[in-house]
Amino acid sequence: MVHRIILLISGLILCANSLPIKPDPRPSSDQIKIDAIVDLSYETKEDDMERAVPLPVDSEPSMDDIDSAPEKPPPIPKLNKAEKWALIRAYGKDPTTRRRRKHDRIQALKRGKRVNVKRDLAAPWRITHTASRNKPQSPSVPDKPAMALPIDECPRQFDAVTRGINGRIYMFARDKVYQVWHEDGLPQKASYLISDLFTGGPRTVTAALTNSRSGVTILISGRTAYRFRWNKKHKRFQFAKNTPQEMPRNVTITPQTAFEWYDGNQVVMSGAHFFIYDAYWNVPTFTGHTRRYFPSLPADIIGITYNGGTTLLMYTKSNTIKVYNTKRYKVVQEYPINIGAYAGCLTELPKPKDEKPKNRQKTPKG
To answer: Which residues on neighbouring strands pair with residue 198, listed in sequence order?
Structure first.
């Protein structure tokens, strides 16, 4: 009986081996990839060119996509403390002189040292405080606000624009500056002489910027830089330290535009070239080409009126505000500006041309 069962099992095995093997209807993952490639090669015929074929996730972008996508600019190099001090010393200046005496006294008191801040009573005749003869004396700030000018004249375009640390926008045109701000939710506008609102400042301004860290507004006239601080009490700007200063000789360009970039760098630009400017030490810390570090920047930019990190509002000479996206590196929107409504002045009407007198025929006498 057992022998018969063994023979039956062996017979079934031989029959199973003799039958044809049916393939698995479910293809493998490798087969799916191969079939997709083959099908894609057959579907790219002239009759089926209009059929959309999705690109793989890990595929490289086409040349058209590369050309349309803006190239990320290289970051502007930053100097550490040692490099910055070495650069300042290379210009013949001592970087340690910027330390404030009050800060030194506080540090000395923390260390337990006694600081003699009073005058020596044993020698009252000794002169302890003298004015430096080398440094020019800064003009005194008037104890009243600047006198506003009438609004009967309106410029055709502005020379420079900046936003002060007080949140007000200052637009410079020839020898005047137009101030725009909001008070109690209402827009306020006024115009002044530059030398009146900026005490001791230049007559005209070619470029202007505001350092958001120090709160100093820098006006550039030609190759001379002026540093100002806002006097909240008198509603005027007054001279800051180390001002005015002529730009170094190695700065071969004449500044035409200045602004603070979203990363905090103070940029002074002239056409295709720019340099990062330290106005306190009067030292350029970096120079480069405009297109490489500032792609798609408007060629006629005269200043930045708002710096929101990823969004910059740029004012141009053509009286337009362009919205620049710092992540996409291009202008995304543009708005035309009416100077009369924006600066609070009356539009200047063109003067009528003088008509030439008609030639009168002389009547002969007699």
So the answer is: 237
